[in-house]
Amino acid sequence: MTNQLTGSENEAGTPRAGSWMTATARRVVPLGLRQSLIAIVLGLAICFVVILLVASDPLAAFDSFIVGTFRSTYSFGSMIAIATVLVLTALAAAVSFRSGAFNIGTEGQLVLGGLVAAVTAQHLGVTGLVGQAVALVAAAVAGALWITIPAILRVRYRTNEILTTLMFNYIAADLALYLVNSYFRDETSGAVETPPLDQSMWLERILPPSAANVGVVLVIVIVTAMWVLFDRTRTGRRMEASGMQPAFAEYLGIRSHRYLFCSLLGSGALAGLAGGVAILGITHAYVSGFSPQYGFLGITVALIGRLRPVGILLAAFLYSTLMTGATAMQSTTDVPFALVFVLQGVLILLITSQRTGGKA
Amino acid sequence: MTDRPVPAAPAQDPPVLRLEGIVKRFGTMTAVDTVDLEIRAGEIHALLGENGAGKSTLMNCLFGLVQPDEGTILLDGLPVDVTSPRRALELGIGMVHQHFKLVPSLTVAQNVFLGSEPHTGPFVQTRTAEETVARLADEYGLDVRPDEKVRSLSVGAQQRVEILRALAKDVRILVLDEPTAVLTPAETERFFDVVRGFAARGLAVVLISHHLKEVRQVADRVTVLRLGKRVAHEAIGDVTNADLAALITGETRPVSSEVQRGTPGATVLEVEGLTLRNGRGVEVVHDVSLRVAAGEIVGVLGIAGNGQTELVEAVTGLRKPTAGRITVKGVDTTGASPGTVRAAGVGHIPEDRIGRGMAGYWSVDHNITAGYLDTDEVGGRLLSDSKASSLSARLMKEFDVRASSGRQLARRLSGGNAQKMVLARELSRQPDVVVCAEPTRGLDIAATDFVRRELVARRDAGGAVLLVSSEIEEVTQVADRVLIISAGRIVAEYADHRPSEAEVGRAMLEGKS
Ligand SMILES: Nc1ncnc2c1ncn2[C@@H]1O[C@H](COP(=O)(O)OP(=O)(O)OP(=O)(O)O)[C@@H](O)[C@H]1O
Ligand SMILES: [Mg+2]
Asked: Is A356–B339 a contact, with Cβ atoms under 8 angstroms apart?
């Protein structure tokens, strides 16, 4: 007989293995700022303990980790540049999480998006704003294409998208390496990278000499658009219903599959765009390993930001402050950058295990 | 009516449990207001009250799920601090919740011992766990297999698992929150035998229910809550059902007057030769035909599990038929998507209101306006919060949905109010066809009456209502035509008169008229 109370038999397109994800998506959205703050404070406290344990001069380490970023325009600008990319990968994660699918493949989509942006920018023949726009759109399309197969598998055959998108990360990394090595490599360079882009294709810097660039404007536009989509449109509302409670969405006549498919593609596109922004705005060439795990970090940022665009914006600034801080700390003290990954693990754990407000 | 003195307790029988002056507030709203309660060993104590009266909240205080703002809990005369459900179980207090909290993918034994598995070193002793469950099940006459997955259990069996979970912890006080709302009449009978067995062994049982008939059958004493306050506590023998009803609702209302029969017009919903398979591929509905006319309520009555769930799903587009035809106002909707069926003018009040009928983590506003997303009542191109919340506020008022505000999460609504929220969304759009399954399950007297009146009002306004229910009284009182479903077939029809309860009861059991 049907399981009346859990309604698990007919949930549209939800593989059983994915029920914990639905549960996560369900719980993360209604959580408030308070829970995020608790997680951040606890996460930082654990970082402090780690620093105390491993640093020979803990005070200096704390100092560069937390406030180092605001000491110079350069490090502040670097922080902004990182945040620009993180917001996009975090929005990518949020779009898919909200509709009940977990795109863990943002890293791969970002890498390919970056490569396509670099190659397009180089060979397009059009320069300036138009050229940049075309390259960024190409990056987004690449990201969307890269998630198409996992998206089809998920919607048609209920294949768990966590596994497929994750595996596509490894394929993407190898594919990018192969393509650069065989076709696009800068022969004059010892590293695996494409030739530097013409300066007219660079996203204009706003805090020279730091990497902060006009990508920030694009990001603010996209955050606003996402806020409108999630909070102010029927599409966003229906997407949320599909993600939160598939049986309810089905009952309301919402075609969950359609929303799922579109939001997976949208998610891929945002991740690809993030890659494009990183290449045109920061490295100005496709450099193998250009991403310090922007894709995976985006997942954490999305969760801290409670899958809400404005929350994500704030979380991204916080997180990149810590990342620039960790870089500074690594160079001035003996605490490694990997501390950021400890923080990431702790935050994910704390946030996904929290309950909705108060006792119930 | 005022608080009358408690009937003198036999001297040898001191209360095992006393709640004194319990207060629980949510924001500005006082859900439980200075309530005293005393429970004795070996008694079955009924806790009655309207939807939202605070029954579950009071018991949640006792079980450590919420912390009371004021008041004391005395166990064997000593004050205790019930900080968590775990602590409650240690103290010998068990509770079976209104909405079960089982893990569907685990077995019965795993669910029973969740978090307290018997183990040697790091290894869980599955055998021991299963044997313990089998022994307990046997001892208390609870029929379940310890190694079965909870997912495949009927609702009645799931409830037995919940009870086993409490019994495995060796409780002395067992709270049952609306245990019979999900049971078939036969299961209810068996369940009450089990409960009487508990009491005979000296357990104290607190039973929350909306069915006065049932309460009278098993309870020794009753306590009535109204708007969070205790308004009576009596021995059951001292009060009549009319007294209780008056205490619960706070008004002496006449027993709901007889529903006039409708005047059916043209056929609106037509089902021809419908054959359906369930999720496992077993054919559960065979060649069923029925029609519902405008201005008519057709009741489909049967013991749960006879194909009515699947029938409702097929009519509302949630299940694809293997054969047959469904038309709504002449439009063929066979195999159409739920969205198409909805657009064709069908409203659906689903049996599984928690999983299907609402999103628990959405606000009441979102849940209600979810049915209006295709209209301009929730905004123009962009959604407007103010429009949505005024629409929702109007419907909450009209359908008497009691919540602290429209922004309250739906999962925090009391059981009855959750159902009224579903009704508000579905009926307010005045659908031509209303398909409802067990619409008054878990509802208090007033709310049940309210729902039935709403269905009749929809009928009188020209709606076609298909009422699928396992409650004889409900169907015989409200429906204009009664069909009996048994083993997936319509086995009897009463068209020209309202059948007596005895008449249909026999047909339901025999499977033929
Ligand atoms: N966690 C909570 N937050 C806010 N309000 C709550 C919460 N829990 C309960 N309430 C409110 O407290 C009131 C009492 O609810 P409760 O669940 O105790 O009612 P009940 O008597 O069990 O009703 P029912 O018969 O419908 O189950 C309701 O108005 C409900 O909305
Ligand atoms: Mg209740």
From this structure: no
Contact call for B409 and A250, based on CB within 8 A: no
Question: B51 φ, ψ to 5°?
Answer: -60, 130
Domains and CATH numbers, chain B: 1-92+171-255 (3.40.50.300), 106-170 (no CATH), 257-345+431-513 (3.40.50.300), 357-429 (no CATH)
Q: Tell me the backbone φ, ψ of residue B102, rounded to 5 degrees.
A: -100, 160
Q: Write A320-324 long-range contacts (CB < 8 A, 24+).
A: A320/A79, A320/A80, A320/A82, A320/A83, A320/A86, A321/A69, A321/A79, A322/A65, A322/A66, A323/A79, A323/A82, A323/A292, A323/A297, A324/A68, A324/A69, A324/A75, A324/A78, A324/A79, A324/A82
Task: Quote the tokens at residue B298.
Answer: 């057709």
Candidate from B50, B175, B354, B412 with most ligand 1 atoms within 8 A of CB, to mutate: B412
B158 and A228: CB-CB below 8 Å? no
> Which domains, ranges and CATH numbers included, belong to chain A?
29-51+76-351 (1.10.3470)
Report the pLDDT averaged over residues B259-272. Answer: 90
pLDDT band at A25 (very low <50, low <70, confident <90, very high): low
Neighbours of ion ligand 2 (CB under 5 A): B 56, 98, 414-415
Higher pLDDT, A23 or B186: B186
Q: Is the ipTM of this complex over 0.95?
A: no
For residues A200-222, give the mean pLDDT. 93
Main-chain dihedrals φ then ψ at residue A283, nearest 5 degrees: -90, -25
Ligand 1, atom 22: nearest CA belongs to which residue?
A: B56
Q: Do B154 and A1 touch (CB under 8 A)?
A: yes
Closest chain A residue to B154, measured at CA: A1
- pLDDT tens digits for range B337-363: 999 999 999 999 998 888 899 999 899
Output the CA A135–ligand 1 centroid distance in Å: 56
Residues with CB under 6 Å of ligand 1 are: A 360; B 26, 31, 49, 51-57, 98, 402-404, 408, 412-417, 444
List, for residues B118-163, the tens digit of each pLDDT value: 767 777 777 788 888 888 888 777 778 888 888 777 777 888 888 8
From B48, B151, B168, select the one nearest B96 (Cα to Cα): B168
Q: Which residue of B has its CA nearest to A239?
A: B370
pLDDT of residue B255: 52
Is the model's pLDDT at B512 over the cut of 70?
no
The interface residues of chain B toward chain A in range 288-307, judged by CB-CB distance below 8 A, are: 305
What is the Cα–Cα distance from A252 to A259, expressed in whole angstroms? Answer: 14
